[in-house]
Write a structure and sequence with these properties.
The chain has 93 residues and is an alpha+beta fold. 37% of the residues lie in helices and 30% in strands. Helix 1 (7-20) packs antiparallel against helix 2 (25-44).
């Protein structure tokens, strides 16, 4: 199954990078690489993520990587990464 990143999710990833790069360019790159690779795992195992508690919908799922939540929409023919948030952020905001 193919994974697509929404504009919003890409902006989140950019924001994560821009925040971390202030302290360490190496760590910023590693973090973005890890999050991107995690989306490849989602393609291989789309049901591995848990249902997002704030939405309680089978097709809205999330996986974690460190403190980050990768939230995705599972569709019949593709997966859309819709958000990448720090675990403390409220999804609905």
């Amino acid at each position: 199954m193919k994974v697509y990143w929404t504009d919003t999710a890409e902006k989140h990833l950019d924001s994560i990078y821009n925040y971390i790069v202030q302290h360490s360019e190496l760590y910023a790159k590693k973090t973005v690489d890890r999050l991107t690779k995690k989306s490849i795992q989602i393609a291989d195992f789309p049901l591995s993520g848990r249902i997002v508690p704030e939405f309680e919908m089978d097709q809205i799922r999330e996986v974690f990587d460190g403190p980050y939540r990768i939230i995705y929409h599972l569709k019949p023919d593709q997966i859309d990464v819709i958000a990448v948030l720090h675990g403390y952020r409220n999804v609905k905001n």
